């Protein structure tokens, strides 16, 4: 093990001050001394993944802080143990990570990288993220929704995997991120106003694009051939197979890898095909399919049906997120739909 590296993600106006995201501490999602419990809770925010203790447990506690700013999720994660994190593959977002404390040995986009307070990584959708974390490691993570990023760039992109926090071109992004996480007034404004949140999202994205090298995502350029011939027809068939599998197994805890296997393609190919054919991710398609089924059940008003039963039977394990997604899609709450049916 290398010695823990102190974080250099400092206030750009005070080079001696270590970055401490104090405002995130007010958004603590959980604390736990059980690694399986931590994995399950983190999966609700990020995605299903594997956690493995690499040494004899020391009795450390896990925690996660998390807040959303438009299409960007900002958070910290700590396990308090020497832990391996295996996300295979990253689903429909770009994962940016470095360490506030400690260090990690990382595999991202098939590249071995070191993560500490001065260096991190950006992992693309469809790629594997594997990290061995030191027991004192606290990760700082950004979850950048793929579709949100493409709305700003107008095309698919892929960041350079290695993140050098000392890069001069990244200092404006660092300064803005530090301001967001240290100004209570600014954070309140972002949370109170969707317009302010959208503007903050736009600013953080464009500062990152200006500071971190990136290229067009080559597989997507190849995929954008006319539909009906060559790759276009193959992608349409891939999507049909995937959707048919989702429809048959919508009530099961499907993973992206399960859907790709059923379609007979790799996860990256599946993601590319859905972007080209449907302009959304497979998991968005699955969520919408489940929402439609839940709405059908609620509208029938069948005996004994409740919102919780409809949600669980249609594959939603978290009732709060189900209700939020339902209202966003249909313009009413699930309980409103159920009352109208009665």
Automatic annotation (TrEMBL):
Entry-linked InterPro entries? AndR, AraC-bd_2, AraC_XylS_family_regulators, Homeodomain-like_sf, HTH_AraC, HTH_AraC-typ_CS
Per its UniProt record, what SMART domains does this chain match?
A: HTH_ARAC
User: What Pfam families does the annotation carry?
Assistant: AraC_binding_2, HTH_18
Domain of life assignment: Bacteria
SUPFAM superfamilies given for it? Homeodomain-like (SSF46689)
Q: GO MF annotations for this entry?
A: DNA-binding transcription factor activity; sequence-specific DNA binding
Name the UniProt key words of this record, in alphabetical order. Answer: DNA-binding, Transcription, Transcription regulation
**HTH araC/xylS-type domain boundaries:** 240-340
| NCBIfam families membership | ant_diox_reg_AndR
User: What name does this protein carry?
Assistant: AraC family transcriptional regulator
What organism does the record attribute this protein to?
A: Pseudacidovorax intermedius
């Amino acid at each position: 093990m290398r010695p823990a590296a102190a974080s250099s993600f400092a206030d750009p106006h005070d080079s001696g001050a270590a970055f401490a995201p104090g405002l995130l501490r007010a958004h603590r999602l959980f604390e736990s001394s059980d690694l399986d419990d931590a994995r399950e809770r983190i999966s609700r925010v990020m995605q299903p993944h594997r956690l493995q203790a690499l040494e004899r447990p020391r009795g450390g506690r896990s925690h996660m802080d998390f807040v959303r700013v438009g299409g960007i999720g900002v958070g910290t994660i700590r396990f308090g143990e020497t832990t391996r994190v295996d996300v295979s593959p990253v689903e429909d977002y770009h994962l940016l990570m470095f360490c506030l404390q400690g260090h990690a040995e990382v595999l991202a986009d098939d590249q071995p990288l070191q993560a500490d307070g001065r260096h991190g990584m950006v992992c693309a959708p469809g790629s594997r993220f594997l990290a061995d974390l030191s027991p004192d490691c606290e990760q700082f993570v950004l979850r950048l929704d793929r579709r949100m990023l493409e709305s700003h760039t107008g095309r698919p992109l892929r960041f350079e995997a290695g993140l050098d926090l000392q890069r001069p071109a990244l200092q404006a992004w660092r300064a803005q991120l530090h301001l967001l996480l240290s100004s209570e007034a600014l954070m309140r404004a972002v949370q109170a106003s969707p317009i302010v949140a959208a503007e903050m999202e736009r600013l953080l994205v464009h500062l990152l694009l200006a500071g971190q090298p990136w290229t067009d995502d080559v597989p997507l350029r190849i995929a954008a051939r006319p539909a009906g011939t060559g790759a276009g027809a193959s992608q349409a068939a891939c999507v049909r197979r995937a959707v048919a599998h989702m429809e048959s197994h919508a009530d099961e805890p499907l993973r992206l890898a399960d859907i790709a296997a059923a379609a007979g393609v790799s996860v990256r190919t599946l993601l590319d095909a859905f972007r080209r054919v449907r302009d959304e991710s497979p998991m968005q398609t699955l969520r919408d399919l489940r929402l439609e089924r839940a709405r059908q059940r609620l509208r029938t008003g069948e005996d004994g049906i409740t919102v919780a039963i409809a949600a669980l039977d249609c594959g939603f394990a978290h009732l709060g997120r189900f209700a939020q997604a339902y209202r966003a899609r249909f313009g009413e709450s699930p309980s409103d739909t159920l009352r109208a049916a009665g």
